[in-house]
Amino acid sequence: MNDLLNIFIDNMIPVLAIAVVGVVLRRRLNISPAMISRMMFYVFSPALAFNALFTRDISGGDFLRIYFGTLALLAAVGALSFALLRWQKIKPEEFATTLVSTFVFNGANFGISIVSFAFGAEALTYAVIIYIAGSTVAWTLGPYVSSSGQASMLQSLQSVLRTPVVYALIAAFGLKAAGISQLPPALGRTSQLLADASIPLMLVLLGLQLGGFHKPDRWRLLLSGTAIRLLLAPIVSVAVASLFSLEGVPRLAFILQAGMPTAVLTIILAYEFDTDHDLALNLIMTTTLISPITLSVIIYLLQNGII
Length: 307
Known about the structure:
Elements: H1 2-29, H2 33-54, H3 60-85, H4 92-103, H5 107-146, H6 153-161, H7 164-177, H8 185-210, H9 219-243, H10 248-258, H11 265-272, H12 277-303
Helix pairs in contact: 1-5, 1-8, 1-12, 2-5, 2-7, 2-8, 3-4, 3-5, 3-9, 4-5, 4-9, 4-12, 5-6, 5-8, 5-10, 5-11, 9-10, 9-12, 11-12
């Protein structure tokens, strides 16, 4: 019990403390998360992805196993969610919102930070790859489900190509393929500074977003979505990690990322495709508030070799 408490204090409290700063800024100074969100999207997240992948030695095989392992994991979670939710008597917009919330996970704000705190800088690199793979699914399958199949998969794929982090990924591997292992100091230090600033800014942004949420309702759907996202997904990830031969630090990052809460992108999709945005807000809030407990348990199980 003491070990579990120490894990919570060491890994969750720093994340929650910085997020609370964002909540206070939103509530007291009415700071909108929109501008910081755009800064993260266009500058800081791509810098973090580029720096993590360019400065670390990772083989193409490891990258592909983690990337496609993440796609397989989210496809499995989405399929199981579909099977579990279809038997509930809920409205189509509630069904779409809850389904999206189970496979669109917060691998950035929460995931990268917590994986880094729990397992170090090496794990952060793999967490970034998982986040990129998760973004691919979020921006393709997410719009498709939210639109009830009206958005074509081609349109969804085009939205992925408008995501700057994809080009950061291409740049990092392109430079490595060209035999360039080190940037000029001016560029290298700029990239490093932006990457270092990204994690605390992600957490402040998370707090700004949470600061606008209100009292939850529809507990049956919240329970279903939360259980799938925080409990079922990590269980499935253990099997998928074995299937894709993920061992050591990549496996730790993979399983821990699988247990992250629902991403804020869920509410963006809900507004964009006119599904249940109030339910999306509640699912984001509920999974985010409960996840520090479930993630502490996952870290404990991983650190002790139980899973």
